[in-house]
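go over this chain:
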Amino acid sequence: MPTTAPSPKRSAAFEQGGAPLADATASDSALRRFLHGLPGVDTVGLEARAASLGTRSIKTTAKAYAIDLAISMIDLTTLEGADTPGKVRALAAKAVNPDPTDRTTPRTAAVCVYPDMAATAAAALAGSGVKVASVATAFPAGRAALDVKLADVRDAVAAGADEIDMVIDRGAFLSGRYLKVYEEILAVKAECGPARLKVIFETGELSTYDNIRRASWLGMLAGADFIKTSTGKVATNATPANTLLMLEAVRDFREQTGVQIGVKPAGGIRTTKDAIKFLVLVNETAGEDWLDNHWFRFGASSLLNDLLMQRQKLSTGRYSGPDYVTVD
């Protein structure tokens, strides 16, 4: 059975500076008190700051740096019922060599697939340094028994996944059963072994910014290596405001515990302009320590193409034709 106690390493970190975070997960009532005791979110202030940071102008050398950084942060993703081994191998080849005409182009961070495609991705990416990420826990709805979710994780890790993207039980969270969500994350983390765990909140279904803040802290308390906005399968996915809120959470969590957690906005980020706005959010909110693909990722499928075309525009002074990039 899952335990409500954090790992010894995480528990020790919680006590740094006298922060009693270990006590927050001692019981269902303690967890509720902690999460509902977090400061309320100023909606107007949050959205205004996100909009203001999005107006920053990034040009020339800084823009070239930002484009390469964004490419290196992409989890190049295919999560469709029509996925085939051939499509996954082609995506893996693109992740390793995004622009065959320019070998200086960075590789992407990972290729993200369903568990049954993880072995195919792992074989195609072997020795490249590009990670295999796999969604699990009955993605995207998360509507399955815990033993089924854990089997999903075990299969993905056994097939070669370096990273697991799990979904929380939004029904349990929204009905206030926080300990159930916490214990599921703990159990999934235990099954991950050496694989890093990204915990997806599906922010578009959480309704309020206060819930997003609570979910962020709940995921971090349970041992998430990353907190992730969305599955990309609902109407509202990553936004500057919800990502800003999650960046504030990881910043504050590290200040209290010394433990650094990554952030992954996913869904709806399609253009270079969008990606650069998110990088500005990272730099201005969490800080430079998160400007690395070990701590920040973009969950995307079409974003890479626009980054590649903008990259060529900077180097040649002209936009490439429609056949310059592959259609994923």
Remarks:
- The beta strands are 74-77, 110-113, 131-135, 163-167, 196-200, 226-228, 262-264, 298-300.
- DSSP finds 13 helices and eight strands in the chain.
- The first helix runs from residue 8 to 14.
- Residues 1-9, 15-19 have pLDDT under 50 and may be disordered.
